[in-house]
Amino acid sequence: MVSTVGGKSSHLAGKVVVFVILVTGALIYLMPFLWLIRSSFMTTGQIFRMPLELIPKPFKWKNYPQALTAMPFFRYLLNTLIVLFFVEVGTLLTAPMAAFAFCRLRWRGRDLVFFIILTSLMIPYAVTLIPTFILWKTLGGINTYLPLTVPAWFGGGAYNIFLLRQFFAGIPVEFDEAAYLDGATPWHVLWKIIVPLSKPALITVAVFTFLGVWGDLMGPIIYLNDAKKYTLAVGLTIFRGAYSTKWNLLMAASAVIMVPPIILYLVGQRYFQHGIVISGMK
Amino acid sequence: MRLRIFLLVLTVLFSVFVTAKTVELTFAFWGDQLEAKAVTEACEKFNKAHPNIKVIPMHIPQYLEKISAMIASGNPPHLAYLVESRALDWASKGVLVDLEELLQKDPDPVIKNKLPQLYWYYDGGKKLAGVSFAAEFMITYYNKDLFDKARVPYPPTKPEEWTWDKFVETAKKLTFDSKGRTPDDPNFDPKNIVQYGAAIGGGGTSPWVLYPLLWSNGGGIVDEMGSEARIDSPETIEALQKIYDLIYKDHSAIAPAAADAFPSLNVALQTGQVAMVLDGQWAMQEAAQMAKEEGMRFGVAPLPYFKTPITGVEGAPIGIFKDAVKDDPEILQAAWEFYKFIQNPEQVVDVIRSGLWQPTTLDWYMEEEYINKWLNPEVHPAEYKAAVIDYYPYAKPYPNSYLKNVAEINTIITQEMSRIFYGQEDIAKVCKETAEKIKSLLAGRYDR
Amino acid sequence: MFEVKGCSYLRKFERKWGILLALPGILGYFLWVLGPTIAAIFMSFTNWSLAGSPQWIGFENYAKLFDDFIFKKSIFVTFYYAIGSVVAGLVLSFFWALLLNSKIPARSILRTIFFIPSITPAVAVAMVWLTLYHPQFGLLNHLFKSIGLPALKWIYDEKQVIPAFIVMSTWTIGYTITIFLAGLQGIPKYLYEAAMLDGATWWHRLRHITIPMMTPAIFFNLLMGIIGALQGGFTQAYIMTSGGPNYASMFYTYYIFLNGFQYGKMGYACALSVIMFLIIMCLTVLIFRTSRYWVYYEALRR
């Protein structure tokens, strides 16, 4: 807690304690991933042998090429990237707009409208699945990427709007007011002032959106008929049959598919720094 | 001049012939890599043989959600695997083509010659929704090495000889605690069992294995007409008690909690933690793979029985959707042609030989020529024919293929049985309460 | 400075821009959410089964709810899980976020590690926990036995299954940790500097600076946590327990799925959804209303 709650960052004993706790926790949280990796190099039979065996014997390197050729991996990767691109751009454009409007501008009915938008998260997916499907059928979007990408351009979802609203609400109003005095429009204030100050929040939205697309299983299956258009998440299902699952190959494929999100998160951490440098403002 | 006219007429005729409508059919199915490959190849074979029909295979994961969406939006595929719990309900709501009509006009030998248990009738038995595309019996798998080590004779292949008492006796001889004692030993330590004689699929809660065992004692879930509960009949309670005793009194069958934690019982068999497993025939493919990769020697036998030898047979049907065919006789005919084709076990023989499916036509169970096509020495153990193929007269279909509200009833049964097998509650009490709970759901059968 | 009291030009200006910028979000709701929501509500008054045409049956579905013992069990199970997992999740993720915000080496890597379970495909997570929870050979019981504790039945015991799932849910708190981390970045350093000049202890700083400044993030995680948990547990029920043993893990959304897709009772499933919708809405209104008293916004203009 040393730098979180302020405090001399040179308080060594405190830092060591924190580090030890974190490493212990990290090892616990790493367990499922380690299980996945070790299983990806085994035969299915060995994976579930009890008590748990840690070292694959024999080491089945072949699982990886086998898993990656079981599905058209590169095509699915490309498809996923296409959907990802449109969803990210759409979300990162329209969600900050909405969050800004719900937080830093005042207009009648604002909070009611915000609440209504929030209710979109409250109705279980199982029952909106079919009506939404029929909606898209009438719009002619079946077997296209439209149902997967277009909604992102309309606010990117209540979750993201709400998230950004909370973060925008932590930035002092003085910034806005100063800009308005200089004749700026809210558009300018949003993109040139608020957004640069909200890097951690925006990175969070970007990463979460990435994960949403990367792992979306039901969306592509329901809306796409052509197997050629499937995404990576759907590709993983090839290892599950009605009666049995090829666990070793599933784990190998999952391991590969998990790499990009991990790298993205790691890289995104670089922007998680104190965003507001208030020096001499007050 | 006459030559030119001739050529012109020829060209016109040719172009008319070539642009004769190609009927496109969509066929939706589920399955793993192997099944998908086999079905896709069958479709291609069909397309080559029928130049004016094009079958487009649709391999769908998360099948139930997707097919439900397609049906609800009025755009179902032409042909599709039907999820068992929904098939007859869909049929009775009028979304499926009645195959009985087609069969009257065209009594195809393949379709007419299926195992009688595999026809899905509705509307009081007058109409046919579909026929199963594969069959699966419930059988006993066993680890031959464990039997050899304990010097216990293998289970018999004749259904009549594999009585429940013999099954219990065998299981006891193959259950060992950490000091090598069997349950008959007075110092047996039930807290430290290293090998179990038996594992019952689902630990006793899975309908697949439980129902045939109940039937064999004269019990069951519902009566013949599907309007009265039988779950609380004395025969059912007696059977449940005997299964329970095997697990908790004789300690010779693995407790459901422990059994469920294995993703498939073959793993338990292969690792030597269990000597016998009661499971579906579908596990054959995986068992064969383990035999190959890990050197497990396994055998098969019929299901043990209480009073009458019996087993269950399950297999989802294929149906034709009305909304896709749209009353167009040409499309309907094309769909029927493909239906007959894909229902012929010859077209999917690869999956049959892999051990995953059993064929559906009687010929394959009775005629040597077909039995030889079925048996794969790398997959099927030597006693397979005697234990499984010859077992077909003893197979009874599950309520899935005829009972109304079967999905809801199955959920309640599974949950209530877990009170017995997990919670160790009093069997008679649970059965009585279960009968009460399913009473409102008993609405009879589709086929009577 | 921005006194809107009589300054009609500024009010119009803000309103114009407010609606303009919120327009994509508002349209999004009307286009993709409103229709299906109304459809679901409408369907709850019918006996729709996805095949064939639905017939109006009025409040019959809702009346059936009163006699549905599984519905009642499901509500209980879902709330039990929601309260447990939200409380445990919030406390733990706040704790980890505080630690992960310290100036320590390998910070980025450690943060990523805590996030990895949330990236792992649900099927893999389920399998890991199945092997951990194995009554006989699982790692957890192995550990328990080695330190003298009795082995538990975990997800195979109707009393232990929900606590077992709550423990499992504390694994995937990567999202909440990340949001807390982002929130921590937004606390101006000068506040801490000033407090330390006044001689405040770390506990004091935590209580009077960190937590108050984090209330917007806490509010978000609390609300989203509740909305998510009440609709959660589906994957666990679907893959691991099928709602058992003895309905003890019959999560609400799983029951809705069973009714809508497995039983063909989509109308009833919609009625179940409407009930949950109303419950969540009431809870949300409640939390929003009370947030006035404990959430501190630097700049949420009212």
The CATH superfamily title of chain C: MetI-like
Distance between the termini of chain B: 71 Å
The largest pleated sheet of chain C is described as: none
Distance between the termini of chain C: 14 Å
Whole-number tally of structural domains of chain B: 2
Number of strand segments of chain C: 0
Number of domains of chain C: 1
The CATH top-level class label of chain C: Mainly Alpha
- Strand and helix order of chain C: HHHHHHHHHHHHH
Overall pLDDT level of chain B: 92
Structural class of chain B: alpha/beta
Structural overview:
Chain A contains 14 helices and no strands. Chain A has helices at 12-40, 44-47, 63-70, 73-103, 110-118, 125-139, 146-149, 158-168, 174-181, 186-197, 199-215, 218-223, 232-235, 247-268. In chain A, α3 crosses α14 and α4 (73-103) packs across α8. Chain B has 448 residues and is an alpha/beta fold. Chain B has two domains: 21-135 and 315-343, Periplasmic binding protein-like II (D-Maltodextrin-Binding Protein, domain 2, 3-Layer(aba) Sandwich), CATH 3.40.190.10; 137-309 and 382-439, D-Maltodextrin-Binding Protein, domain 2. Chain B is built from 21 helices and 13 strands. The N and C termini of chain B lie far apart (71 Å). Chain C has 13 helices and no strands. At the A-C interface, α1, α4, α5, α6 and α8 of A face α1, α3, α4, α5 and α8 of C.
Spell out the key features of this protein.
heterotrimer, A: 282 residues, mainly alpha, MetI-like fold, 64% helix, globular, disordered N terminus, disordered C terminus, B: 448 residues, alpha/beta, D-Maltodextrin-Binding Protein, domain 2, 2 domains, seven-stranded mixed beta sheet, six-stranded mixed beta sheet, 21 helices, 13 strands, 44% helix
